[in-house]
Design brief:
The complex is a heterodimer of chains A (about 900) and B (about 110). Chain A is of the alpha+beta class and about 900 residues long.
């Protein structure tokens, strides 16, 4: 083949030389013929005339040769295609099954590849995305911590590697004055944020450096969505006022509706305000991160290694300058794409491998079908060979048929894929970063084409080679009854391969299912059923601590008065599996660590006494917070068992005192409760972040109350379905404060389920692939066993005639299937043993070599294979010896 | 039906050309004369079929061509059988005998 294509090109490229050589050859033939005729006594002109006549016209001969040389390939191809289409149309059943099998295999591959393509392969949709880096603070035990704004400003000033750095942090604002007050999502961003990403405003301008500082005139950018919703996409929006949290901002620009940024802690928002404009004292404190992160664009020619060295030096410099807060603090740089895609990569690669197996099984299955079918065509090929078709030609003919099937399968597969992508993303969108970028693009189409062609060659080649190797004389002598030994061996091998591949997929899916079952039975440390969580925002931020506390008490009382609410508690800071905040502390009686970095850290839950009942967290010792712990009484705190174990060992922690330096207070430990799985059901040991403590919200120091005044969370245990209570709760809130907004309303068990989203995504996909593999390999073994049994009809007839029992026949046919299945299962188990290790980090509480799972899938496959073989075996059992023998 | 007929003729012609080149390299006109000779005048191969066949066989690697002087000192393109051409000749001879056997049996069976 390559030689022929080469000569096709040679003929096209060097057309003139070839033409010249052809011309020379024919002229020389004319001369030779003329000479011959002249020897017979003809005159030169007459001899030449006769020579030309005998040659049949120089031009005609040339044309014939040209057709042969350059066009043959094409001509053969069209003939093959036409012939192939005719042949396939003659066996519609075979064609339909084949195309369908391939469509499923190729479709599943295309769907998954488009996910891999959209998430892992495609560059981020920003200008020169390779130069974008995500920046984090690096503290002991955690290298992706949030960044304190004063530190960020120093980074901007002192770095030599970035052409621009931008900080951002999320917030929520109450938008008033345009219809009902509502809660809008906001991001505070540096002025450099949008220019750095290369985002142009849809209207107006983005933020300017002069907007991005304390005391500047408040300006705001609105999203395309808000622009449409609140301003009907009117061009007059520029210069209009927008009241957010009682501050009047001026709208200076509109961000395009399709703007996306998926950095940590960044949400698609309704409004964007300048971060440097925010004068909150905690935000301006070098100790506090306040959820701020940053993105940077490297200067041209600067490598990430150079930038790392530069920022490391900068970090060391800051640590010297501010040892009290910045000691042991560094800067982490991660390519933005890696930061966005996160740790989904190994999962996707495992899934891609799995779906590749599905395609392999589909190919093997189709190869098997083709092989069985080609048996009936042996005679056809023998005759073609006898008539001068060489072996390559026959192989090419068969491959053309395979490719036609594969391309049809690929076309149908595209439809399967586009449906599959939609289904997968609809069911499990939260599992995937960049999910909105997943689509069928050029590269995916190319992949599908390549998969189809490769698949076509793969499943076409084996039968083609087998058929073409058929000994002509043997076949013709046999009178077309087909070949025996060798062909059947190939089919048996195919079945074994299929079984083995199916076992690998089943084992993978089985392990995922076992992991999820294990995870679901993990005790999260609280009872997530029938718990509603939401946030409440208040427009005012100027109230005194007393007024805020009074509002909280009012809220608490009216929430708990809602029928159907059994226990409701306000909360702030950490919410299990949703958000966390931590505090440095030291125990009283121990020396105060010289720097914040050397202090211990605990997760910090600001709650009310009813929290324990709302969440059903078990009390282990002492008491929980009580309504008597108010702003006038001694400050108390409740710790969890991890806190007690880590910091007190065997000692009784009750009565001990904890010093929270950053809050300027010391609290007495009054009780110990159970540990809550803050980081999801699969929470492993989180060094340094295991300890948890509960602090009464009303005892929060006056000076920090403004941080909580604008927004507070609620957990409420409800009598029935939590979401059914939303209406009455919202009504109760409206009674307390008409300006308050209830948002991010979620059922707690939904939050718990979301923490398993990636695993569920993998399980659903692996499970469907395995199911597909199971069905296909069953069809495969059924096909082969019934084919083999039908080939042995005469033998069976003789056996029966000679007195063999029908059960013996059943046993014989079943035995053949079981042998194949067992060999396949054995190979598959061995292969799976090696391969499941690659998915070890997707598993939970189950070994990659879990014997129960392996035994289970092996048993399942053998059982299903037996069932598939039972049908042909029963038919064989019913063979009528008289009919069978008469066949001959 | 017509297609198969061409196949048959083409197969036959290939066999004859290979056979003609079996002893020594020949130019196109020489091949034509040799075929006439070995078929005792029964086959007059037209050059319109001969040259395309030669070129096709050259592409398949069964024959190779070289320019050299003819017996009359004219430049002519000579075709020589390659080893794969020799192998092909064996195959075609065997197949042909088989077809003949079958066809004979078929014709006589009636």
């Amino acid at each position: 083949m390559p030689g022929r294509i080469g000569s096709l090109f040679r003929n096209l490229l060097r057309k003139n030389t070839v033409e010249q050589a052809l011309d020379d050859e024919l002229q020389s033939a004319v001369a030779l013929l003329t000479e011959e005729k002249m020897k017979d006594g003809l005159s030169h002109p007459e001899a030449r005339r006769q020579a030309l006549i005998e040659l049949g016209g120089v031009e005609q001969v040339k044309e014939e040769v040209r057709t042969v040389r350059a066009g043959r390939l094409l001509e053969d191809f069209t003939t093959d295609v036409r012939y192939g289409l005719r042949t396939l149309a003659k066996s519609p059943g075979f064609t339909a099954v084949t195309v369908l099998t391939l469509a499923l295999g190729i479709g599943a591959n295309t769907a998954l590849f488009s996910v891999v393509n959209g998430v892992l392969l495609n560059p981020l949709r920003y200008a020169e995305p390779d130069r974008l880096l995500a920046l984090y603070s690096r503290v002991p035990n955690y290298d992706r911590a949030s960044i304190s704004y004063p530190n960020f400003l120093d980074w901007v000033r002192e770095n030599r590697s970035f052409s621009a750095l931008a900080a951002y942090r999320p917030d929520d604002f109450t938008l008033a004055g345009r219809g009902e007050p509502e809660r809008v999502a906001a991001e505070m961003v540096s002025a450099s944020f949008f220019p750095l990403l290369g985002v142009q405003p849809a209207l107006g301008r983005t933020l300017l450096p002069e907007d991005d500082q304390i005391g500047a005139r408040p300006v705001v950018l609105v999203s395309g969505g808000l622009w449409k919703r609140k301003f009907g996409s009117s061009k007059d929006v520029l210069g209009q006022p927008l009241t957010l949290n009682d501050v009047v901002y001026t709208i200076v620009g509109v961000i395009p509706a399709d703007f996306r940024y998926t950095g940590i802690n960044f949400r698609p928002s309704d409004v964007y305000t300048p971060i440097g404009h925010w004068n909150d004292p905690t935000f301006r404190n070098r100790r506090a991160g306040m959820g701020t992160f940053a993105v940077g664009r490297l200067k041209p020619g600067v490598t990430i290694e150079q930038a790392k060295a530069d920022m490391d030096a900068l970090g060391r410099h800051l640590a010297e300058q501010f040892p009290e807060v910045d000691k042991d603090t560094g800067i982490t740089l991660v390519p933005l794409k890696q930061a966005v895609v996160g740790d989904i990569r190994p999962t996707l690669l495992v899934l891609m491998a799995a779906v590749g197996f599905v395609l392999l099984i589909a190919c093997v299955n189709v190869a098997n079908l083709s092989l069985a079918r080609s048996t009936g065509r042996t005679h056809e090929f023998a005759i073609r060979a006898a008539l001068g078709a060489n072996r390559g030609r026959v192989v090419r003919q068969l491959l053309t048929e395979s490719l036609l099937l594969a391309l049809a399968g690929g076309g149908l597969g595209l439809m399967v894929a586009s449906w599959g992508i939609r289904a997968a993303l609809n069911v499990l969108p939260e599992a995937l970063p960049r999910a909105e970028e997943v689509q069928l693009d050029g590269r995916v189409l190319l992949f599908t084409l390549a998969a189809s062609v490769l698949g076509g060659i793969l499943f076409g080649l084996a039968p083609a080679l087998k058929t073409s190797r058929a000994d002509l004389q043997e076949t013709l002598k046999e009178g077309g009854r087909g070949l025996s030994g060798a062909r059947h061996r190939a089919q048996r091998v195919f079945v074994v391969v299929e079984m083995a591949l199916a076992i690998v997929l089943l084992a993978g899916a089985g392990l995922m299912i076992r992991s999820l079952v294990k995870l679901w039975s993990v005790n999260p440390g609280f009872d997530p059923h029938n718990v509603l969580t939401f946030l409440i925002s208040f427009p005012s931020r100027t109230d005194s601590a007393e007024v805020v506390r009074a509002t909280w008490r009012q809220l608490h009382d009216s929430l708990n008065a809602v029928p159907g609410v059994q226990a409701a508690s306000l909360d702030a800071s950490s919410v299990p599996m949703a958000s966390e905040s931590d505090l440095p502390f030291w125990l009283e009686g121990q020396p105060k660590p010289p720097t914040q970095a050397e202090m211990k850290i605990t997760l910090f839950y600001i709650v009310e006494p009813d929290y324990l009942n709302a969440m059903k967290i078990p009390l282990e010792r002492g008491r929980f917070l009580s309504p008597r712990d108010d702003e006038h009484s001694p400050i108390v705190v409740v710790i969890d068992e991890s806190f007690a174990r880590i910091h007190f060992g065997g000692q009784d922690p009750i009565g001990k005192r904890v010093n929270f330096g950053i809050l300027n207070l010391t609290a007495e430990i009054v009780g110990v409760v159970g540990h809550v799985k803050q980081f999801g059901l699969d929470e492993g040991p989180a060094p340094g972040l295991e300890a948890q403590c509960y602090f009464p919200i009303v005892q929060f120091p006056d000076q920090f109350i403004p941080l909580l005044a604008r927004r507070v969370g609620v957990v409420a245990r409800t009598a029935g379905s939590p979401l059914a209570q939303v209406g009455s709760i919202r009504h109760a809130l409206g009674q307390v404060n008409a300006q308050s907004v209830m948002y991010e309303t979620k059922a707690m068990d939904g939050i718990v389920a979301d923490s398993l989203a990636v695993r569920r995504f993998s399980m659903v996909l692996l499970g469907s692939f395995a199911a597909l593999a199971l069905v296909m390999s069953c069809v495969g073994i059924y096909g082969v066993i019934s084919y083999l049994a039908s080939q042995r009809t005469q033998e069976i007839g003789i056996r029966l005639a000679l007195g063999a029992g029908r059960w013996h026949v059943l046993q014989m046919v079943l035995g053949e299937g079981v042998t194949l299945a067992l060999v396949g299962v054995a190979i598959g188990v061995a292969a799976a043993f090696g391969l499941t290790r690659l998915m070890a980090n997707m598993l939970f509480g189950v070994s990659a070599h879990d014997p129960l799972c392996f035994a289970g899938v092996a048993g399942l496959l053998i059982f299903v294979a037996l069932a598939a073989c039972f049908i042909p075996a029963r038919q064989a059992m019913k063979v009528d010896p008289v009919v069978a023998l008469r066949c001959e | 039906m017509g297609e198969k007929r061409t196949d048959l003729l083409r197969g036959t012609l290939d066999l004859l050309i290979l056979k003609a080149l079996w002893l020594e390299p020949l130019h196109g006109v020489g091949v034509s004369r040799r075929i006439t000779q070995i078929t005792k005048g029964a086959f007059q191969v037209s050059f319109g079929s001969l040259f395309p066949s030669l070129h096709r066989m050259e592409e398949k690697g069964w024959v190779e061509a070289e320019w050299r002087a003819s017996e009359n000192n004219r430049r002519a393109k000579y075709y020589r059988l390659t080893s794969s051409g020799r192998a092909q000749l064996k195959v075609e001879e065997r197949d042909w005998k088989q077809v003949v056997k079958i066809m004979t049996a078929a014709v006589e069976s009636a």
